[in-house]
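ENTRY TYPE: paired fold submission
RECORD: A
CONTENT: sequence, then structure tokens
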Amino acid sequence: MVGCDARLVIDDTGVGISATDLPLIFDRFFRADRTRNTPGTGLGLPIVKRVFESHGGTVSGLSRIGEGTTITMTLPSES
């Protein structure tokens, strides 16, 4: 795309992420206490963030307990 940013927004209706844990979800190997028994490595979001940032983009997350989480990924348009 030329002239506007590309944005991908992913919403879920899961249990949500606590305000304490939300800043940590992009840290490698981070696993919230209540998800330790769920399969995973804690690498998915950190890898996504690194890839987007290496292309000048951003990744951010918003969440509410009991309502779900939104992850927003943005890539800048070509200059």
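RECORD: B
CONTENT: sequence, then structure tokens
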Amino acid sequence: MSDELTQSIRLLNSLALKLKAKRMAAGALNLASPEVKIHLDSAESSDPIDVEQKELRETNSLVEEFMLLANVSVARQIQESFPGTAVLRRHLPPPHSNFEKLQDLLMKLKGMTLDVSSSGALADPNEPAFNTLVRIMATRCMLSAEYFCAGSVSRETFGHYGLASPIYTHFTSPIRRYADVLAHRQLAASIGYTPLHATLHTKSHVEQVMSVINRRHRMAQMAGRASVEFYVGLALKARNLAQQDNEGVVEEAFVIRAFRNGLAVFVSKLGIEGLVTFKNEQEFDSESYSVTLPGPSGTAKVAVFDRVRVKIRVEQDKNTLRGKVKMALVSPVSSVGL
């Protein structure tokens, strides 16, 4: 296609690729977790019938790059205009000790060296599912990003580690984030479009608002994860009914933690995590991060990063009466009776 709209989008995409390459060269990290796509019964119905990992396209990155550029540009503008009260967002670099366990895991079990200063070091193009798993585990080693008042911290701590940007804010989503609304108000005032309310000139007030927003943001993240688990549970239950199988569905998973009494696993196809629990404690080796499980034809050692197969079903929680995802090990051995 060679129409004007197509050519414009292709030009924007070429610019987005350059922006992304520049960020990555500066040390930005690609640590986004996979999103889950819920299939509904129909456009008029809210009943989930299936679930899968959402496929990201190049245009997703196109939009993301220009949103990041807008956020950085606005951050610079409002910080210059309101150095004492600008609403900004930062991501402090994590202490090296946070990554020690993950680095030890990768070295012992995969022979890999983790270098979080480069997103390329976290990528394994031959095994995208494993790449996703490492990104998720690396993200959990990091500190949480936070909103802050520009006049409350030193200029040297403004930076956003994950984006490799010296300054950042949230501006592009005012319909769903209050911090973006405040950034819009400060930007409008900085270009003389509208006066700024007196409270946004007061550092103590902005500090108090940032504290509330950070707390609410954490609560929203937890609610979001709970919502995904809830709808995934409904979708899996619907899939079981459609297949007339109340025993659950079997999917491949990666082991992300091993214990004496169970395994924590990540089902990459569905983008969900879960626990496989054992009734009895098993032999656990802390050096190899593995647990030895008895089976009908001998024992099997299961370690972190191993691929296993799990049966996923939905049970009603006795306390909340809601569907809750339950997992059981199918192979290399069954966890039934363990």
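NOTES ON RECORD B: The chain has two domains: 51-216, 247-331. The radius of gyration is 23 Å.
STATUS: closed
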